[in-house]
Amino acid sequence: MKRQFGPTNAMYPQPIILISTISKEGKDNIMTAAWTTNAGRDNSSIAISIGGDKLSFRNILQTKDFVINIPGTDLLGQSDFCGQNPGEEIDKFSLTGLTPLESVLIRSKMVKECPINIECRLKETFKVDSANLIIGQAVKVHIDEKILEEGLIDFNRFKPMVYAQKTYFSLGEELGKRGLSQK
Amino acid sequence: MKRQFGPTNAMYPQPIILISTISKEGKDNIMTAAWTTNAGRDNSSIAISIGGDKLSFRNILQTKDFVINIPGTDLLGQSDFCGQNPGEEIDKFSLTGLTPLESVLIRSKMVKECPINIECRLKETFKVDSANLIIGQAVKVHIDEKILEEGLIDFNRFKPMVYAQKTYFSLGEELGKRGLSQK
User: Fold this and answer.
1) Interface test with B, best of A9, A48, A147 (most B CBs within 10 A)
2) ipTM (interface predicted TM)
């Protein structure tokens, strides 16, 4: 028996990412997000939903770039902090102890402690409800050698966080590879 | 030390969902997807990236609706099958043994065996690279009483699947609630 609810956000689970941006005056910021997805194959586009009132949104419009940093479970506390506190008055890098690292192709800096960093250039923005769907194009991807095995990510070594119903989870056990039903 | 890659899809992990649609002639289909996210708060909008060549995309354009069904790990084989086989020539409901269930507000049917079903009306589509970002508005959400505890989903009873690098994973252990850094 199922219970019926009205319109509600019930898409679970989602990835936890850190979005790092820089203002035109050069002030870095980090924002935590979960409403994000790969969006296009041929140009490696990524979509992120961000409220229009967010500092990160204004920064992205100014500099036309941002970095998607994927934290491991060891960055749980820092990731939560960057999602709970607006960046206008504070320096989230220094308060969390996270390290800003120069990107290769864009102005926004990477979060060094995250094993995956995706340098993105802003492609376009779409309005959805009162939020903005930011479309970024991945232009350079950095992956820590420690989590790579023959060019692929080893999820026994890298544990990304998964978010559902305002709760952080770890990634669970491997169930099988795509195509398992065809064998 | 990090290794540099060119543009590549590296957003991990993503949720596994089943999208059920119906053609204007009344033929049901199920497609598996992972590139999806909540997109807007006030109208509970959802974004899904779908290739323009997909039957599900054509169905959605025809009927202007679709259902997002969230499977548990017990539907691993069926979920993989629906992602591996195009629906033009086959009936995925009968081949997988999944049960089509009438929706309340829309024409596309729900997948009964999935503990969460989100009836969505098509709001708009945006072109991103060669894919299409489908924006749906959740109009009715169905959640199995068995996974609910005081109106919230209990992720000890419902185990959604998480997808990363062409591999299915279970949801891992709970790490903490949003706001944990503020305590």
Assistant:
1) A9
2) 0.94
